Task: inverse folding
């Protein structure tokens, strides 16, 4: 099933009347200069997209998908890629757009792109020609939108992309160690589109084309904008009473205990209750009120007021509460609008966009992509393109709900799928058009490798569910876990003419894979290129529960299957597990137990992933507040262990690389402080030796030198010669006096 049936389905992407400029047809590349515009016969652009990435005309790059989609709607679209942001000049290179600027930081949040998890600047940038860093500013969306306004103050600026999505409300910023306002407030932009924005951007473009203003576009899903008052006929519900969570639960349902639900029954009962009843604070004239709850509680006219920016910057419990409510209002089937005051204005967020149907996904990926970088880059390599040029995106979204991951906040938890025919057609396109193709497709995947065509068994349950994960703490019994469509796709794809091999490189949900052993066999036998990377993330329950990841026992089951089918296939293949250091909920003892597990299984991690607090993620909320928004948030609610000091983060990373001698001194000191000195030694069950190689070499060298001097003295019987003269130590001159030797004796 491609996507659920929603009560408020919008117009399909291919049902819009094309704009008049469709007469210009399609371009080989969207123009990046006035010369290219002249070649196309354009006097101006209708829409200009400003992006922090180099322009690659490939469906894995956001600017290409949005640009080609708007082109298919009949608009003339130009690209300004990685402009010099130090002045407005670069933002004027294509002239004034007729409708609007679309601004995005690129495929990554610009701060994550530019800095490591330890806040150190990166020297490289995978989305830049030549791979060198420094081609985009910090907080690129904010800077670009301000420059667009400087260039053409009267032209609307529309923010989009993952950076805008993850910063759409007041959010904790890891790099400044503070809560920042919504990026819409700081960027001086007119509107923000969050999530996969195809529906919203097409609607916005056509409405601008017919003369509407931003103030007339307040009904578009997946958008955020600024307004001063709640409109009439809207019911506003206050979510800030964290001291009375029970009553808040019954009104807006932000505190569902997701770990105890089954069959989504509680959500359905609550939704029915909401339709029949409304809670209001008691008033003296309560008996005089006349209202109809059903009419007032329509989701289309209900808005939930989150704690204001001014409150969440000073109250961590309110911040955690707001984050929890926002995450529980992300299902397009039942989400309501959210509002958050910033100063004297309101930030208004409409409900998330309706997922694309399979036909719409096929329509988007059927655009005439050149599938190569723009010719302006010449022979310079763009690392991100080199990595994905032979890969294919078969789906979107993720219902895993991992708290450290931003996929759900951006793409949603409902899987959006392409048809098998569309995917096979793209493989043929790669075979016939992409330079350097050798017959190997590097990936058929997406956010996950094996959620293709997986969905809730009942669309009604799916539309009413508020669980943040369909697979934690266990796989929901309403989830269809059949991998049959995916196996059929694999089989047909690898039998296409000119295709030698299909590899699967996307992250695998092994807890889903073990439900279908035949899929594991298919994967291991035909689609593993020597190594298969999966991410159990940890071995201990405390951090795993804060990640919403399955226990290590599920990994053991998958490993057993992997090794069994590898042996049956007569291949030499290896499973590479990934782990996270310093995640919220992790104590030093947890990391020590993980290190002992790694040594027991004789595994040495080459790369270490430290927790990176990305904006708006649930785990980032834990990191900032020390509270767990997966449960009810109160001032006395569960405290979460957080790893913030550089020293402790360094220790957690060191324990993941227990085998590296450079980490032994740090680990040895920590083991002594933890009272675990018995783990120091060279025994089978001990973690690190008693010495460092450098210390051993130093002692060995000194010992060797001492023995050498002693032996030399015995050989010469004290008749050592000086270093430069060669005279014996007891030499005398002609007068019979002792020769004074200024040079040091040879030792």
Result:
């Amino acid at each position: 099933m491609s996507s659920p049936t929603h009560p408020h389905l919008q117009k399909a992407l291919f049902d819009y009347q094309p704009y008049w400029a469709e007469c210009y047809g399609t371009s080989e590349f969207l123009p990046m200069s006035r010369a290219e515009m002249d070649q196309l016969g354009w006097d101006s652009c209708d829409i200009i997209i400003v992006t922090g990435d180099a322009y690659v005309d490939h469906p894995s790059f956001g600017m290409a998908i949005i640009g080609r989609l708007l082109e298919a709607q009949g608009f003339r679209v130009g690209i300004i890629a990685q402009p010099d942001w130090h002045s407005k000049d670069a933002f004027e290179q294509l002239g004034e757009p007729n409708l609007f600027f679309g601004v995005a930081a690129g495929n990554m949040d610009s701060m994550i792109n530019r800095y490591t998890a330890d806040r150190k600047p990166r020297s490289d940038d995978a989305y830049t020609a030549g791979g060198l860093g420094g081609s985009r500013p910090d907080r690129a969306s904010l800077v670009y939108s301000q420059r667009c306004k400087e260039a053409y103050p009267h032209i609307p600026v529309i923010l989009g992309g993952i950076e805008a999505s993850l910063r759409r409300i007041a959010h904790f910023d890891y790099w400044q160690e503070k809560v920042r306002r919504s990026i819409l407030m700081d960027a001086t932009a007119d509107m923000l589109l969050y999530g996969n924005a195809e529906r919203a951007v097409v609607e916005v473009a056509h409405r601008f084309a017919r003369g509407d203003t931003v103030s007339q576009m307040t009904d578009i899903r997946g958008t955020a904008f600024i307004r001063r008052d709640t409109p009439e006929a809207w019911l506003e519900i206050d979510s800030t009473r964290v001291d009375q969570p029970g009553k808040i639960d019954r009104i807006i349902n932000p505190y569902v205990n997701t770990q105890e639900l089954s069959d989504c029954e509680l959500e359905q009962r609550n939704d029915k209750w909401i339709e029949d009843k409304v809670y209001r604070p008691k008033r003296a004239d309560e008996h005089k009120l006349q209202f109809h709850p059903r009419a007032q509680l329509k989701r289309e006219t209900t808005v939930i007021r989150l704690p204001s920016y001014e409150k969440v910057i000073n109250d961590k419990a309110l911040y955690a509460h707001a984050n929890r409510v926002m995450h529980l209002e992300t299902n397009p089937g039942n989400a309501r609008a959210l509002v958050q005051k910033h100063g004297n204005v309101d930030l208004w967020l409409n409900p998330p966009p309706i997922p694309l149907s399979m036909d719409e996904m096929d329509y988007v990926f059927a655009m005439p992509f050149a599938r190569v970088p723009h010719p302006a880059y010449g022979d310079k390599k763009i690392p991100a393109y080199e990595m994905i040029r032979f890969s294919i995106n078969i789906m979107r979204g993720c219902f895993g709900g991992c708290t450290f991951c931003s996929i759900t906040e951006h793409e949603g938890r409902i899987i959006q799928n392409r048809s098998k025919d569309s995917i096979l057609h793209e493989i043929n396109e790669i075979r016939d058009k992409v330079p350097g193709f050798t017959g190997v497709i590097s990936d058929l995947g997406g956010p996950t490798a094996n959620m293709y065509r997986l969905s809730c068994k009942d669309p009604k349950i799916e539309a009413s569910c508020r669980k943040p994960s369909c697979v934690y703490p266990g796989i929901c019994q309403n989830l269809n876990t059949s991998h049959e469509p995916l196996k059929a796709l694999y089989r047909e794809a690898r039998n296409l003419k000119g295709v030698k091999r299909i590899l699967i490189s996307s992250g695998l949900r092994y807890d889903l894979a073990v439900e279908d052993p035949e899929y594991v066999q298919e994967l291991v036998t035909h689609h593993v290129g020597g190594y298969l990377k999966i991410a159990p993330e940890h071995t201990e329950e405390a951090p795993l529960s804060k990640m919403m990841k399955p226990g290590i026992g599920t990994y053991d089951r998958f490993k057993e299957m992997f090794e069994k089918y590898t042996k049956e296939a007569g291949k030499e293949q290896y499973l590479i597990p990934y782990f996270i250091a310093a995640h919220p909920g992790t104590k030093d003892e947890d990391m020590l137990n993980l290190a002992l597990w790694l040594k027991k299984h004789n595994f040495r991690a080459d790369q270490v992933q430290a927790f990176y607090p990305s904006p708006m993620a649930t785990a980032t909320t834990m990191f900032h507040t020390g509270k767990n928004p997966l449960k009810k948030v109160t001032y006395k609610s569960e405290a979460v262990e957080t790893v913030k000091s550089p020293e402790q983060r360094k220790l957690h990373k060191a324990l993941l690389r227990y085998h590296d001698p450079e980490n032994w001194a740090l680990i040895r000191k920590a083991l002594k402080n933890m009272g675990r000195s018995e783990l120091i030694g060279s025994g089978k069950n001990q973690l690190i030796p008693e010495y460092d190689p450098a210390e051993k070499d130093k002692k060995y060298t000194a010992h060797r030198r001492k023995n050498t001097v002693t032996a030399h003295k015995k050989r010469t019987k004290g008749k050592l010669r000086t270093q430069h003269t060669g005279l014996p130590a007891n030499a005398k001159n002609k007068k019979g006096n002792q020769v004074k030797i200024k040079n040091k004796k040879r030792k």
